[in-house]
Amino acid sequence: MSTRKSLRILLLCVLAAFALLEAAALFVAWPRAARDGGWTVEAGSRKRTPAEIERETAALRRRIRALSPKGVHIIIDSARNTLTLKKGQEALLTAMISCGSGTILEDPSGKRIWVFDTPRGEFQVKSKLVNPTWVKPDWAFIEEGKEIPEKQEERLEDGVLGDYALGFGDGYFIHGTLYTRLLGRSVTHGCIRVGDEDLKAVYRAASIGTRIYIY
Amino acid sequence: MNRAETVTESRRAGQRRLGRALICIIACGLFHGGLAQEKNLLIQNRLAKEELQLAGSPSLYFVIYLETGMIILKSRGLTLQEWKIEKHNSWGDAPPLESVTLQKKSTLFPPRRTRIKPPDNEEEAAAFELDALELKDMPARFTLYLGEGMRIYVRAKADGFFPRLGNIGHFFAWYVWAPMTNLSSELRQKPFAALQIVLSHKEDAQSLYWALPDGIKGLIYPL
Asked: pLDDT digit string (tens) for B121-141?
């Protein structure tokens, strides 16, 4: 038998074996839910009547709904860079914003690293400031290639955060911007930049404790 | 008894047997339907308990409703974003009736974060270049690994030649790799459940990738 023919037979055998294996795999992988129900439910639950279970489920759903905000709250979509101010189900305002750029900055010493993401989850307005002053953190100096100052006064910068700022913890703020042309893009170091008029409306509507949802 | 009476009698007996068989089938159907309904109520109940726990924390969580074909991102029970599932199918075990945690996202070309290089001089500092991680950089085909052998293959519906070509890898992952992995898991007596979700638009898949960070918890309501 020639080598070529042997190779052909070997290849066919391998393909046939693979086809068989694939057929077996597809058979075994058939979804359990469709084949045998597969669900395991706690044994104790069977003692309750369907009506009781239904009532309990409805009560659980009411408790879940009760957790969501009824008053003014802020929803931030960091993917599309939009802010929606809502009161219950009603949207009061939708604004273009700028969220975290997702970039990374490393301290030249290699000891510290910053990831400029906007945090996600539920937060609350913790502070409300008028004409805020930016206290430049270390990363701002490192990013600009400057020495980190020792005196606190050298860190203060007026006019860059707009007319208002709403703090929501860990040094993150919803504030104004000088770079309005970049609204709608992810450019910040984690804070949320809003245009002047929209920021004014958000500042007026929100109070300490107003919930902020960021995703 | 003449021949005609014998035939009539045997016909009646046949009809009686048929009637009994039909009653048995209907009774079995009703019983099975009742059991299925009870099972569904228990599943809804158990998942509602799980969701109450998730909604009790300030973290985001997701809920996949296979029956209605929706994925919802929530916080405190509040719907933040919804995605419509165009098509879905599954292999292996049914999804667990408890909260699952996203352990990792896997994709062929994961988005890369840019490292900022501090400028060496004033000129460099003045030159601004926007290099951010944005929605358009997110992949539209990826796999979510949820632990306990549960994984979700996500892709956007392919329209056009190149997107279809791009789905070939996904096709092999779903029809060859996933069943083979399931077989291997079966042999090692390990759990395996795979779900394939097809979303209508590329941007939907990209925004889903964005919205689900590693560690996020979620629930899957079965069919």
From this structure: 777 766 667 788 999 999 999
**The listed CATH number (2.60.40.10, 3.40.630.10, 3.20.20.70, 2.40.440.10) that belongs to domain A72-214:** 2.40.440.10
CB contact at 8 A, B170 and B49: no
* SS3 label, residue B2: coil
Same domain, B42 and B99: no
Minimum CA–CA partner of B116 in chain A = A105
Number of domains comprising chain B: 2
**Residues of chain B with C-beta less than 8 angstroms from the C-beta of A60:** 45, 48-49, 51-52
Which residue of B125, B131, B135 is in closest CB contact with A79? B135
Question: How is A28-63 classified by DSSP, letter by letter?
Answer: HTS-HHHHH------GGGGGS-HHHHHHHHHHHHHH
B79 in the same domain as B169? yes
Which chain A residue's Cα is nearest to B183? A25
Q: Can you give the pLDDT of all 215 residues of chain A as single tens digits?
A: 688 899 999 999 999 999 999 898 888 888 875 344 445 555 555 578 899 999 999 999 999 999 999 999 999 999 999 999 999 999 999 999 999 999 999 988 888 999 999 999 999 999 999 999 999 999 999 998 889 999 999 999 999 999 999 999 999 999 999 999 999 999 999 999 999 999 999 999 999 999 999 99
Give this complex's ipTM.
Answer: 0.86
Q: B76 and B169: one domain?
A: yes
**Centroid of chain to Cα A189:** 15
Same domain, B49 and B63: no
Alpha helices for chain A (secondary structure H): 3-28, 32-36, 50-67, 138-143, 196-205
Judged by CB atoms within 8 Å, which residues 46-85 of B form the interface with A?
A: 46, 48-49, 51-52, 55-56, 58-60, 73, 75-78, 80-81
CB neighbours of A87 closer than 8 A, spacing ≥ 6?
Answer: A71, A72, A73, A205
Distance CA B174, CA B167 (A): 10
Q: For residue B4, what are the domain limits?
A: 1-55
Annotated domain spans of chain A: 3-67, 72-214
> A124 near A71, Cβ under 8 Å?
no
Does residue B208 sit in helix, strand or coil?
helix
